[in-house]
């Protein structure tokens, strides 16, 4: 167990991580095991993979269970991190009804499990609850601007409903909840075919393919390295009182075009930029106000974009090589 400063203290707990074989989930499981806890990762492997946690299987305190959270589950646990949900716009729009059901029913089942065992739950919410925001940067008090009937609504409204479930269980005294509003997070173990911007750009650059910039690339995001996010989640979970939704992310804001240029620089790729249509309801700007996390949790992102991208590129190089794909550098040399 860790205190609000992230130091190991006290007893070891049994912790359930739904979506534990996903990108963020696998890093979280790793961290919780390192803190001395027993960890159960529950996953249907729809966007995650057992390979993400293969290195954790050596631990006698780690269990991986295949389960779809849209059906109920029950484990005697002290904590639940509820992460089960596709997170990439491309993936969550493939089967939008399922995305809504996963977020609403999955969160309900996680809360019911927490209630039965007196456990505390942390909900992995998202900056998408702010939609395409008119208020910039986004503080937790902003109610957002979500198109409720658009292509992203399955995720945005699913996550908003999940937040309301957490708050209502809390207000009714049924389960103690925490809500982490996670802003764009990246790092090793994002799926190669995930479709999100960081993984797309890195994979395209390493393969010598065109870098697909949607729209003009002037839209902004603020990218947080996964280790910083995991630290924030653990601090939020272990904070003694529920403090309402808390933004977790890195406020350093860049345009998508700047991100593409940084990836090209760091990979040494000569891939060309290819401009593609902007997807429906794509937020024009996004940057978290993290004063609540700073003040209440002592949270501070440590990893700068360049440093995090470098580590992520290294991991993608290794993943592509393991998949039998040599890096295509001939494009770079030919130009
Ligand atoms: P991810 O797709 O890598 O991980 C999600 C995991 O949930 C996968 O392992 C997937 O197989 C699993 N899953 C999906 N539906 C399930 C179901 N019905 N039953 C059981 N498991 C299921 O994505 P991620 O980036 O690791 O995201 C983790 C969580 O954090 C998600 O809830 C996401 O909405 C949230 N989040 C992530 C980001 C980010 O930038 N990474 C930003 C905001 C919010
Ligand atoms: N994007 C892009 N090229 C890609 C993938 C994404 O230009 O290959 C853009 C996308 O339109 C958005 C931003 O990058 O403006 C972040 O997209 P992502 O899918 O990573 O997550 P979002 O923040 O939109 O949920």
TrEMBL record:
GO terms for molecular function: NAD+ binding; UDP-glucuronate decarboxylase activity. SUPFAM superfamilies: NAD(P)-binding Rossmann-fold domains. One of its GO terms (biological process) is D-xylose metabolic process. Its cofactor is NAD(+). One of its GO terms (cellular component) is cytoplasm. CDD domains: UGD_SDR_e (cd05230). It is found in: Golgi apparatus membrane; Golgi apparatus, Golgi stack membrane. This is Epimerase. The lineage of its organism: Bacteria, Pseudomonadati, Myxococcota, Polyangia, Polyangiales.
